[in-house]
Design goal:
The protein is mainly α. It is 80% helix and 0% strand.
Length: 266
């Protein structure tokens, strides 16, 4: 029988289409601001934003602030991910613990994170750790729920067969639970990267003396729209780069998983 599934274009074509979308967006933005349909004072212009970003990197003024934000993001990402994986496995393997703490986990997850930012600043000061703590609260629950679900999704038949073959608890963890959870973990990490940076930037925005959030807050204070969009552009670029690094690690660790064949048969 012939497959009726559509063949997707190859990776180079996908990249060209993505680039075309970006160019179209910048072109529309330029036309709307150049014709004054959108006020350049409130919306800036793509040329001015790109020029400001280039000047900030060329002069080196942004590197210190970027380093602070990336450090906070990395710490929040690592701590939140490790804690989320550990507690996700624990709760999934201990049904009684899961039932007891379930309402508390849901209640804490429902708290608006912005409300926690001033509390962390009060407890931990205005240094990096209050921003890291805010980022951890965002990353932890994303990873926790995905790991919990991934472990719970393990087939009882596979577990029974592994036990019949004499698999120990360590063998079950390494060869059954961990592979099952890894796909869920990396699925959550792509989202967690962005949230780790959101936590760092929001914390800097609410109270800090350095970081990209601090620069954006300063630009807003003097109605510097170009500076605000430039800061947002820098954030976007580095979130994309970090996400690309996570994707590379994912492909290396999950090489056994069937990959999407964009240019082949489906």
């Amino acid at each position: 029988m012939k497959s009726h599934a559509k063949r997707l274009p190859g990776r180079p074509v996908i990249l060209l289409l993505q680039l075309a979308v970006l160019i179209a967006f910048l072109l529309v933005w330029h036309i709307l601001t150049d014709t004054k349909i959108l006020s350049p004072f409130f919306f800036g212009t793509p040329g001015a934003v790109l020029a400001r970003t280039w000047a900030d990197f060329a002069s080196g003024v942004i590197w210190y602030h970027l380093g602070i934000t990336l450090l906070e993001t990395a710490l929040a990402f690592v701590i939140g991910t490790v804690a989320g994986i550990a507690f996700g496995f624990w709760f999934a393997r201990a049904p009684l613990v899961s039932l007891v703490f379930d309402p508390y986990i849901k209640a804490i997850n429902a708290l608006p994170r912005v409300v926690l930012a001033p509390i962390f600043a009060l407890w931990l000061g205005l240094g990096i750790w209050s921003k890291v703590a805010l980022g951890v609260t965002l990353v932890f629950f994303i990873v926790f729920f995905n790991v919990y679900q991934g472990v719970k999704e393990v087939s009882p038949v596979v577990l029974a067969n592994a036990r019949m073959l004499g698999a120990s608890s360590r063998d079950l963890f390494r060869h059954v639970y961990l592979p099952s959870a890894l796909s869920w973990v990396f699925s959550s990490l792509h989202t967690a990267v962005g949230f780790a940076m959101v936590g760092a930037v929001v914390g800097e925005y609410l109270g800090s003396a350095a970081g990209l959030g601090y620069r954006i807050h300063q630009a807003e204070g003097v109605f510097d729209t170009v500076g605000v969009f430039s800061g947002m552009l820098v954030l976007t670029i580095f979130v994309v780069l970090i996400d690309a690094a996570v994707t590379m690690i994912e492909k290396r660790l999950l090489h056994w998983r069937p990959q999407d064949n964009h240019g082949g048969q489906h």
